[in-house]
Specification:
Helix content: 25-40%
Number of strands: 12
Shape: globular
Order of helices and strands: HEHEEHEEEEHHHHEEEEE
Strand order of the largest sheet: 1-2-3-7-6-5-4
Structural class: alpha+beta
Bound molecules: biotin
Largest sheet: 7 strands, mixed
Number of helices: 7
Strand content: 25-35%
């Protein structure tokens, strides 16, 4: 369980903490519709039905991870930067802990030495045509026990710092970092911070059927892939695979 006392002592925003929920994103969306203030956050020790990108499941066993959903109320034109703000805040958290080789794999997986340590899931909530807000779901592996297969692609932060981490303190630091970056939402500065941390630009990649060199990203977040015939394909979303260069 997380320490409710530490959360109460350190969090500056309204929060709801649960020992076990289906998904913090679902509760945050409900709270947003019920009138939650911007910055309010739902935190859980365990998720029974955590959700990841592209309809996948996200595992949050008790005692070993961060699972939180921040309620944000951006102007609609800035909403597309919410997820990159989340990834940047997690990357910064890792670096504050002294962890090296932290990068972001497009679009917003935080990786350490090429292994995923965190994912973000932004979900917009609409009332008719009006954007009520965006729920920024963040999952971070702190001391998750991965099986052999997952260990090849996923990692946790605690083994890398070699001392016990308090998850409530990590959440407080993460939320402060999100709060500090909020004034930059929608700016070129935030886009550049994110772009600078991308670890796959210039590398061979594949997203769906599109394969080639990850050439650049646009301020919208779209990835530009240069295909073998030299043409540029613009990719808006998807799962990015780092691929070995083609053999000649
Ligand atoms: C991904 O697939 O990389 C995104 C994972 C997002 C997981 C977080 S954990 C807190 C919040 N609640 C959810 O159900 N999902 C997000």
């Amino acid at each position: 369980m997380l320490s409710r006392e530490i959360l109460e002592a350190h969090l500056r925003q309204p929060f709801r903490y649960y020992d076990s929920v289906d998904s913090t994103n679902d509760l945050a969306k409900h709270w947003l519709r019920a009138g939650a203030a911007a910055g309010s956050v739902v935190i859980a020790d365990e998720q029974r039905k955590g959700r990841g990108r592209m309809g996948r499941t996200w595992h949050t066993p008790p005692g070993v991870a961060l699972a939180l959903s921040v309620i944000m109320k951006p102007t609609p034109g800035h909403a597309h930067q919410i997820s990159l703000l989340g990834a940047l805040a997690v990357a910064e958290l890792c670096e504050t802990l002294g962890i090296a080789h932290v990068g972001i794999k497009w679009p917003n997986d935080v990786q350490i030495q090429g292994k995923k340590v965190s994912g973000v899931l932004p979900e917009a909530v609409w009332e008719n045509d009006a954007l009520l807000g965006v729920v920024l779901g963040i999952g971070v592996n702190v001391r998750v026990d991965f099986d052999a297969e997952l260990s090849a692609v996923a990692t946790s932060i605690e083994p890398l710092v070699k001392h016990k981490l308090d998850r409530a303190e990590l959440i407080a630091t993460l939320l402060d970092s999100i709060q500090a970056r909020l004034p930059k939402l929608g700016t070129d500065a935030l886009f550049k911070d994110w772009k600078r941390r991308l670890n796959m630009l210039g590398e061979p990649v594949q997203v769906g059927d599109t394969a080639g060199i990850a050439q650049d990203v646009e301020p919208s977040g779209a990835l530009l892939i240069q295909q073998a015939d030299g043409s540029i394909q613009r990719v808006l979303a998807g799962d990015l695979l780092m691929t070995p260069p083609p053999s000649r």
